Amino acid sequence: MGICLVMDPGASNRQIPPPEWGQSIGFLRQSSNTSGDDQDEESLTLYIEDSKEIASWMSRAASDGRFGIDLEFIRERTFYPKLALIQISVGSDLALIDPLAGLELGPILETVGEPSITKVVHAGAQDLEILENVAKQTPCNVFDTQIAASFLGLGLQPSYSATCEHFLESVVHKGESWTDWLRRPLSDSQERYALDDVRHLLPLHDHLQAQLSSEGRLEWAKAEMQKYDDKSTYHPLIDDRIRRVKRSGSLDRKGLTLLRELYRWREDEAKRCDRPRRRVLSDELLVEISRRAPTSIDSFERIRGLDRRDVGRFGEDLIVAVKQGLETPEEQFPPLLKKRRLEPREEAALELTTSALRALCRAERIAPPLVGKSEDVENLIRSYWEGEIDTSEHRLLTGWRGELFGNKLLGFLAGDFHIAIDADSGFPELRSSR
């Protein structure tokens, strides 16, 4: 196995600026053999000394049509994640790339949106968000081994170590989860941990893809991975983003309009000072300001939890945001998502249909949360009772969800299926009533 270790013993105090830092990244040299499970195999230590070496690695990835990638980053105290380490696997070779130094990362970034090259990741949402931000390209052709494993009976969001152990019988030691990846030099343990994060990605890709294909589930898993190809995954509409703010559901349409303007202000301020959103202004305070709609600095004194220093720093900005919300025409208000309460018969149907979904999920070895949320089942029941079933509007009736679950749930509501306890397993199962 080839191992490329590119470390920087002297870069401990360097910081990565916001995403506009360009395409510069660096590699520093330190020889080490951290082959982990493959210690008995002969290891070839490679050194990347310039951008040509990076291009060579990516050229090999292009020839292979794939490579594995994982990132280590720190984001607890900043808005922009501080990229601390990049790990890649090409063929049987591994590389650690130190982004706290100074060479070109262009050849890697160019692969992010390249459809002919598969990017193999595990639980890659945050890593891909960072790559999308830095590369200014929407990722495409991503294979997420976590999603793939969840279609093969390993439950919802299985860990990398659990996936490797289950499918490859390989043990991955996870002793550096809370390490400070920005500190240099990295220890042997950190190097080993980082290499392990990509060591098994390509073997997992081979194994999972083959098993999914043999079980007729490959297209289902790929359809679920398509979310990574969608620009809205990385840049959701603001009306969708404010729904994620804690307690936003307590606001009326006017309050949501003010929240939208305050949210925009907080986003800009968090980016400007490179601080986490919650450290600029908490969700709870955003909602409370939206509810009270203050139009003067003095009004802030009646809002508990709003620090005077914060009022002095950006109180006027908050007033401007509130006024912009108040001046918004009513036809531009965000819609309310509150729905009428379920009738007793619908509540009973929800309870039974949820049980039916769980029984189907157990039979298909797919975790229920991957299939849908309680509100998805509720929406299906509402439409059924109202006699207005539009398959294109229901998550449970489209794609693999409709094929495996949605159509059977409609049949359950119509009386074509019933729930029974299996005598052998003792678990509920869905049976035909005909």
Q: What would the keywords be for this entry?
A:
single chain; 434 residues; alpha/beta; Nucleotidyltransferase, domain 5; DNA polymerase, domain 1; 3 domains; seven-stranded mixed beta sheet; 44% helix; 11% strand; disordered N terminus
Care to give the gist of this entry?
By secondary structure, the protein is of the alpha/beta class. It has helices spanning 51-64, 106-109, 125-135, 145-150, 160-168, 188-199, 201-214, 218-225, 231-234, 238-241, 253-273, 277-280, 283-292, 308-326, 344-364, 368-371, 374-386, 399-413, and strands at 2-5, 44-46, 66-74, 82-90, 93-97, 118-121, 142-144, 417-421, 428-432.
Walkthrough of the structure:
It contains 18 helices and nine strands. A seven-stranded mixed β-sheet has the order 2-1-5-4-3-6-7. It is flat. The protein folds into three domains: 2-233, Ribonuclease H-like superfamily/Ribonuclease H (Nucleotidyltransferase, domain 5, 2-Layer Sandwich), CATH 3.30.420; 238-332, Orthogonal Bundle (DNA polymerase, domain 1), CATH 1.10.150; 344-432, DNA polymerase, domain 1, CATH 1.10.150.80. It has helices at 51-64, 106-109, 125-135, 145-150, 160-168, 188-199, 201-214, 218-225, 231-234, 238-241, 253-273, 277-280, 283-292, 308-326, 344-364, 368-371, 374-386, 399-413; strands at residues 2-5, 44-46, 66-74, 82-90, 93-97, 118-121, 142-144, 417-421, 428-432. Residues 1-47 have low confidence and may be disordered. The chain is α/β, with parallel strands linked by helices and 434 residues long. Helix content is 44%, strand content 11%. β3 (66-74) and β4 (82-90) form a beta hairpin.
